[in-house]
């Protein structure tokens, strides 16, 4: 009997992995509460749910990283035998690509490949690793410009995500048969994301299987053959993708997206803005109360422009007490969270000067601030004193978002701030951004999601470190953004 290898003709009736009443409890917290799930060759299972629904825990049970408190997980090998445990998961070809990238920044691309690909050893392993990762990158992301000898720490966030994805699909001693993709496009621009979605379809058509986790529901519908909805550690709905509508899927997740945002956008766009409050050497400008978007292919200078502007308006003594600009990091692991600190300390970090009384921090006021923003932005935790790493990636991002919005800074710089945030929370965040702008706060917003950029009042499209187009009003649409991303245009066009 031949099973899924990513090539050939696997038996579609034999599951590659089967969870039966799997439960994972951390003390009183039921992270997984009786999940039964199977994944068969040729399937692409869209796994959706709000932050904290249990998706990451389910993934860690499936890949063998977590042993369930109760229930079972079983893998089927390519020879038809079955087994359990992390070693059997690897032998069965279970691969994971996580939202929180696991690459070592001080190692090269090919050296990072050796960590999960344990057959890369002995004389000549570097050449074999270079060939392996290069072939996979070329196949999935043609035109990627990533060399195997590059140090990972020198790559952009999008390039690092591309490397991790390629490592998940790369050939090896145990070929990939089930690849788990957790928010795989969160750092990729639209064109690179389409390349990945094409790879997912090819891989499944060749007999492989994919578990696709994403808050970008359009992508889920593009590739999923089945959608499983999680809430509170349980699968509450499981149907063929064609039986869901996007709104029906949002309703099943337990949160109906707010419709107030669009109305607020229309009202604000009809109003005039205040005086100009910033202008950068690149030609980027913004007025008081304006939401300015930065668009274009990832890695074309948007993040660098934001970083230069932020550094030019922060760091001075007076700017610490009365900040001129607040920052929301997209790469939260590198630029945002303090991993050894609590949720509360991470949220209030930049507010300590204002919370200090006679050189001591007013802890009651600090806790009141944290509790207020926990409620406003919906941070899912029972205790703000828990470590920041106890939160899901999306909830960690909410903490960074709350840290910036709770400040008095008149300008907020956002570097792809919605990475890994669920659709319901995104709608609430869009609404809050628009309300803050209506009150006079200015936003610089870089996003890899075209839908988000199209919510802005004005958009600057970047290409090769320069502004290739300035769009406003009805000209802000996906077609114009893509055109400006691939061909230099005069700003006046």
From TrEMBL:
State the superkingdom.
Bacteria
InterPro entries reported for this sequence: AAA+_ATPase (IPR003593), ABC_carbohydrate_import_ATPase (IPR050107), ABC_transporter-like_ATP-bd (IPR003439), ABC_transporter-like_CS (IPR017871), P-loop_NTPase (IPR027417)
| ABC transporter domain: residues covered | 17-257, 259-489
Q: Which GO terms describe its molecular function?
A: ATP binding
- This protein's UniProt keywords: ATP-binding, Nucleotide-binding, Repeat, Sugar transport, Transport
User: Which family is this sequence assigned to?
Assistant: Belongs to the ABC transporter superfamily.
Protein name per Swiss-Prot or TrEMBL: Sugar ABC transporter ATP-binding protein
């Amino acid at each position: 009997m031949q099973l899924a290898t990513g090539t050939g003709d696997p038996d579609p009736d034999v599951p590659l992995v089967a969870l039966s009443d799997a439960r994972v409890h951390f003390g009183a917290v039921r992270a997984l509460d009786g999940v039964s799930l199977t994944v068969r060759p040729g399937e692409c299972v869209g796994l959706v749910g709000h932050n904290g629904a249990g998706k990451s825990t389910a993934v860690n049970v499936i890949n063998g990283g977590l042993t369930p408190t109760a229930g079972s997980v079983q893998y089927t090998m390519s020879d038809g035998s079955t087994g359990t445990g992390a070693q059997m998961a690897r032998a069965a070809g279970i691969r994971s690509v996580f939202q929180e990238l696991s690459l070592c920044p001080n190692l090269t691309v090919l050296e990072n490949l050796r960590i999960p690909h344990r057959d890369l050893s002995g004389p000549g392993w570097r050449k074999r690793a270079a060939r392996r990762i290069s072939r996979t990158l070329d196949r999935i992301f043609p035109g990627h410009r990533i060399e195997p000898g590059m140090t990972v720490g020198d790559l952009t966030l999008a390039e690092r995500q591309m490397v991790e994805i390629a490592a998940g699909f790369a050939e090896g001693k145990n070929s990939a048969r089930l690849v788990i993709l957790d928010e795989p496009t969160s750092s990729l621009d639209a064109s690179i994301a389409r390349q990945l979605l094409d790879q997912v379809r090819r891989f499944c058509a060749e007999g492989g299987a994919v578990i696709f986790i994403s808050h970008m529901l359009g992508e889920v519908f593009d590739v999923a053959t089945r959608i499983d909805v999680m809430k509170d550690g349980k699968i509450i709905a499981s149907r063929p993708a064609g039986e869901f509508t996007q709104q029906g899927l949002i309703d099943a997740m337990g949160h109906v997206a707010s419709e107030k945002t669009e109305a607020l956008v229309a009202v604000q766009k009809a109003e005039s803005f205040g005086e100009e409050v910033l202008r950068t050497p690149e030609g980027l400008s913004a007025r008081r109360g304006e939401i300015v978007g930065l668009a274009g292919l990832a890695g074309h200078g948007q993040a660098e422009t934001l970083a230069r502007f932020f550094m030019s308006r922060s760091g001075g003594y007076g700017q610490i007490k009365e900040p001129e600009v607040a920052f929301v990091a997209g790469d939260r692991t590198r630029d945002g969270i303090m991993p050894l600190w609590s949720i509360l300390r991470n949220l209030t970090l930049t507010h300590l000067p204002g919370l200090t009384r006679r050189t001591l921090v007013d802890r009651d006021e600090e806790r009141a601030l944290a509790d207020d923003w926990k409620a406003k932005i919906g941070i899912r935790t029972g205790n703000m004193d828990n470590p920041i790493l106890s939160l899901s990636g999306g909830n960690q991002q909410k903490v960074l978002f709350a840290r910036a919005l709770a400040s008095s800074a008149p300008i907020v710089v956002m570097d792809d701030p919605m990475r890994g945030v669920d659709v319901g929370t995104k709608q609430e965040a869009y609404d809050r951004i628009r309300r803050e702008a209506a009150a006079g706060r200015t936003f610089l917003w870089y996003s890899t999601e075209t839908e988000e950029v199209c919510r802005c009042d004005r958009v600057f499209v970047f290409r090769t470190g320069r502004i290739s187009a300035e769009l406003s009003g009805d000209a802000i649409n996906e077609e114009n953004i893509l055109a400006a991303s691939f061909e230099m245009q005069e700003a006046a066009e």
